[in-house]
Every structure is written in structure tokens, then in C-alpha cells.
Design brief:
Elements lengths: L1 E3 L2 E6 L2 E7 L13 E5 L21 E8 L2 E3 L4 E3 L3 E3 L6 E11 L2 E10 L2 E16 L2 E12 L5 E4 L13 E5 L8 E3 L6 H4 L6 E5 L3 E7 L2 H4 L3 E4 L5 E4 L7 E3 L4 E12 L4 H13 L1
Antiparallel strand pairs: 1-2, 2-3, 3-4, 5-6, 5-13, 5-14, 7-8, 9-10, 10-11, 11-12, 12-21, 13-20, 14-19, 15-16, 16-17, 17-21, 18-19
Length: 282
């Protein structure tokens, strides 16, 4: 890993494939947080987007949560039951505290989640770039989040706050918007409606010359349904709070691990499944 500008560069197979921005200069309503952008295929095709016009608080690859005990670590408006999306002064910040480890192919990062002057959560994030083939590599991201507030907390989503289907919050990857909506599919399903909100080992998104395959790499992670958007905008994430809020008692920790295959070209179902098996086993 090397330092370039305001962040660090992650490499796979000797090529720069991701830039980690540690402390972005963003307004408070964007819920500033560390993120990865640009993330590219081995051939150099960019597969992330930041600050898009449709959702200016989307930041490449990040861990973002819209409701931590009423504090917004996602950015933008907050969905309030009975009122809908409301602009509130409730945004939190994920502060990069430093790297425990920096290697050319990965890093271990400490992150503090603070809101209203209070440190609510302490995160230990591990990110690694794993070569798979001549045309594919995998981004392996684990986040371990501890409640350090001294009181019980819970994590919610617009879905748990009254907006069905909007259970975003957790790992989130914003892909670039192209002339045509991306193709999305899972192990046994095709299309946005068929894969959104479903618990599956993996879900794939194919754009113009690229494929992303997202896989839950632990049993706990695989219990989180996928949040998938294709027609409105291209994005895939996990749902920490799908049908109910996620309780995080004082002093407790929750952990999730998502491995994402980043491939040149369009993979079919068999090709996606094969690379997921290789990536998760690496």
C-alpha cells in the first residue's frame, strides 16, 4: 500500500485497484466516513461512484447506517415514521483513528462513530485485495463494531421506521450509473425484484464491461438480506436491520464480512458462483 493524496492505494496482482479516502472533507449532512473510490477492475474500469446527483451522500464502498439510536450515519434525510424523509440535524461522523496495519494488499483500520460529541461505536475494519484470475480480484471487507457508549443501542433502517423495502444500512457499494441499468441476478433468481430483500449466498451486478459479485462470507452475514437497486440507481448492500432493529447492548460487538468479486466482462451464473467459491475460500 502506498500513500497518494488524501488516502492510501490498495493493490492486487501488482496493480492499483482501490483508493481508500480516510478523512474526506464533506459537509456534516453527508455523514463523513472513510470510503473506497475509485475501485477498478484489473483492466482499469471504474466500478464505484461518489457524490452522484441522484444520491449525493453515496460514497463508493463504505459502511453506512441510517439509524444508530436516531443518529444518521448514512447521510441525507432521515426517514421518520408518519412523516417520511425529513432533513434533520442528526448526522454522525465516522472518524478514521489510524491504521493498525498497512500492507500493499490490505489494511486494518480503527474507526470511531461519533454523534453530538459522543463516541457511540468503535469499529475495527479489515480490508484486503485478493487476486483470483487474470481478469478478477476480490475485495474482502470485515467490520467489527463495538458499542462503547456505556448504554444499550440499536440499529434501524427506513424499513424498520415504516418504509417497506428500504432496509439499507451496513456494507454498501455504489456502482457507476450508465446509459442502461445493470443486470442483477442471484444463485437462482434474475432481476431486481427477485434478488432484493432475499437471503442468498451471493448476488451479482453486471454493467458495461464489468461484474461485481457480492457474497456474505460468514453464517451471520448470510442471514442479512441483500439490498439491491438497479433501475433507480446501481447499488448493492447488506441489511443489518431488515425486519426489526438490530440490538447492540452496551459493551457488545457485532461483526460482518462481505467479499466482493470484481471482474472484467460479464459473468454468467456459473462463472459468478465459481469465483465466489474461490474468493471466500482464499
Amino acid at each position: 500500500m502506498s500513500t497518494e493524496g488524501t488516502g492510501v492505494v490498495l493493490r492486487a496482482a501488482g496493480r492499483a485497484v482501490a483508493h481508500c479516502v480516510t478523512r474526506p472533507a464533506l459537509s456534516a449532512d453527508h455523514s463523513p466516513r472513510p470510503y473506497l473510490h475509485p475501485v477498478t477492475t484489473l483492466a482499469g474500469r471504474t466500478v464505484t461512484e461518489v457524490l452522484p446527483e441522484d444520491h449525493v451522500h453515496h460514497l463508493g464502498v463504505s459502511v453506512a447506517v441510517p439509524d444508530v439510536e436516531g443518529c444518521n450515519f448514512w447521510g441525507g434525510r432521515t426517514f421518520v415514521r408518519g412523516r417520511g424523509p425529513v432533513a434533520l440535524d442528526n448526522h454522525g461522523t465516522q472518524r478514521h483513528d489510524g491504521f493498525k496495519l498497512c500492507d500493499p494488499d490490505g489494511f486494518v483500520e480503527d474507526v470511531s462513530w461519533t454523534a453530538g460529541g459522543e463516541r457511540l461505536l468503535a469499529e475495527h475494519r479489515t480490508v484486503a485485495a485478493v487476486p483470483l484470475t487474470d481478469t478478477a480480484w476480490a475485495l474482502d471487507l470485515t467490520f467489527s463494531v463495538a458499542n462503547v457508549s456505556g448504554r444499550d443501542l440499536s440499529i434501524g433502517s427506513p424499513a424498520t421506521n415504516g418504509r417497506p423495502g428500504a432496509a439499507y444500512g451496513g456494507f454498501f457499494w455504489r456502482a457507476p450509473k450508465e446509459a442502461s441499468a445493470p443486470v442483477v441476478f442471484g444463485p437462482g433468481a434474475d432481476g431486481e425484484e427477485a434478488v432484493h430483500g432475499v437471503r442468498a449466498g451471493w448476488v451479482a451486478m453486471c454493467g458495461d464491461g464489468w461484474t461485481l459479485v457480492f457474497a456474505g462470507a460468514t453464517e451471520t452475514t448470510r442471514r442479512d438480506p441483500w439490498f439491491v437497486r438497479a433501475a433507480e440507481y446501481p447499488g448493492v448492500g447488506s441489511s443489518l436491520a431488515y425486519g426489526e432493529r438490530l440490538a447492540v447492548p452496551a459493551g457488545e460487538t457485532f461483526v460482518r464480512r462481505v467479499v466482493t468479486v470484481v471482474a472484467d466482462g460479464r459473468l454468467d451464473r456459473d462463472g459468478a458462483a465459481a469465483l465466489v467459491r474461490k474468493a471466500v475460500a482464499s
